[in-house]
Amino acid sequence: MSTLDLSGADLKGFEPVPAGSYPCTVYEASMGEVSGEGVLPAGTPKLMVTFRVTEGEYQNRRFWGNYSIPPADYEKAATLKGMLVRFLTALGYDEKKLVSGKFNLDVEDLVGRECVVTVKVEQKYNAEPGVMTNTITGVKPAGSATGTPAGGLI
């Protein structure tokens, strides 16, 4: 085995960042489908978004969010569609165009758009107790207030 130079390695790992609001850009965006393990029917389209923190102590850290596009007859369709409209509005899209019924989303156009992502820290789903993760609680327009509240909880 050859000698490895691991000096300068980042040992912070992937612990969640403190709850708060962080300036971000959309780093990646793609369309996928709900697997059927939850309450939405398998095959329901979803927008999958990776956000990248752009400045501060947590620069380059990532957050992941999904926005489902439910069938019209789904009980909570209006709520899920509202989440997607609020997200796209925060990225600078015109709300009237979004709700016109004729909006064509170019997923590639999302990449690079600036925003502020608010996250909380909670128990990671299907993980052993004490394994924590960040969960997105909201996306606001770029320039919105950022930071962590006193006590670190949102």
Kindly, what is the distance between the CA atoms of the first and last residues, rounded to a whole number of angstroms?
Answer: 48 Å
Residue runs with pLDDT of under 50 for 5 or more positions: none
The overall pLDDT average reads 91
In order across it, which strands form the biggest sheet? 3-2-1-4-5
SSE series: EEEHHEE
Helix content: 10-25%
The total of helices stands at: 2
Provide the number of structural domains.
1
**Morphology call:** globular
Please provide a written account of the structure.
This protein is mainly beta and 154 residues long. The chain has a single domain, classed as OB fold (Dihydrolipoamide Acetyltransferase, E2P) (Beta Barrel). Helices cover 12% and strands 32% of the residues. It contains 2 helices and 5 strands; from the N terminus they run E-E-E-H-H-E-E. Strands 3-2-1-4-5 form a 5-stranded antiparallel sheet, covered by helices on one side. Strand 2 and strand 3 form a beta hairpin.
Keywords, please?
mainly beta; OB fold (Dihydrolipoamide Acetyltransferase, E2P); 5-stranded antiparallel β-sheet; 2 helices
Helices and strands in order:
Layout: E1 20-33, E2 45-53, E3 62-68, H1 77-90, H2 95-98, E4 114-123, E5 132-141
Antiparallel strand pairs: 1-2, 1-4, 2-3, 4-5
Short characterization:
12% of the residues lie in helices and 32% in strands.
